[in-house]
Design brief:
zinc; HIT family, subunit A; globular; single chain; 3-stranded mixed sheet
Amino acid sequence: MPELRFDPIRRRWSIIATERKFRPHEFAQPQPETSSPEGCPFEYGQEAATPPEILAYGRQNHQPNTPGWQVRVVPNKFPALRIEGELTREGVGIFDRVNGIGAHEVIIETPNHHAEVADRSPEELQLMFKAWRERLTDLRRDIRIRYVLLFKNKGRDAGASLPHPHSQLIATPIIPTVVVEELNVARNHWAHKERCIFCDLIHQEKAFGDRVALETEHFILLEPFAASFPFETWILPKQHSHDFALASDALLLELGKVLRDFLRRIRQLLADPPYNLILHTAPSPHPRPGQPQYWTTIEYDYHWHIEFVPRITRIAGFEWGSGYAINPTPPEEAARFLREATSDGEQP
């Protein structure tokens, strides 16, 4: 029977439409033609086609903006926000306006045009995550920046304009609404119980077991109880940590291993779908007058995590009008499919 489920962390309702109960193969989509690296601005030898690099790993000759890199970070050529200028805030009647100060960068994850995350080594993925960590740390030094959102869009239906593997960051002078909601819930939970709500979630889901998709020594992958989308998955470090910037190299290597394993299972089940991968971590530690003092307890009450959403369903009128999601695959079923799948592409 269908259920309405409430997520206390995101404060959202979802309808789990159990009577639809789609199996993984029913979400499979026609595969696009393989793209050619010819003319791609992210290829070796095309470094001049991007803005000058901010960061690069792996190059032996130490000459910037030349081939030989393994990971390269550049400003977005068409940025949503710009780093230059003075931050201003003003009211416009009942509205608020902040000028477009921030940053928009592209992390070119590999020189290999066809090397998706599931095809790379854990060491290559560790290097990608190190670039995330370094750019996050560096941008926080700017007192105008309140939040740095790191994300990956794979496939045109997920918002990727170029097929070459890359992720992005957008740094903003305000904390995004979705993150504010999580921060407020985490602070309230800590204020009443002196426990992290995410740690409580991990302990509870391990005890129940039916929504645990994968587990390693230091990470757990959960299908949220009130998942908004089929196979929506949260990747959480099992040891409490509020800030991705504090992750060790060893932890990032394990994160690369678990992400590769997970995405190989997803590829097997859902025929390599487009997806979004989003990092939620602590905001920049710059106090602001009149703003919630997140940084006073955030070390204890927040817990960084990565959210994965495959783009295999569409939002329609009811979802837009109600704010509810309709998910045709119960998260317990999604977790079971993922546990039973294999990461080598073979059927279990």
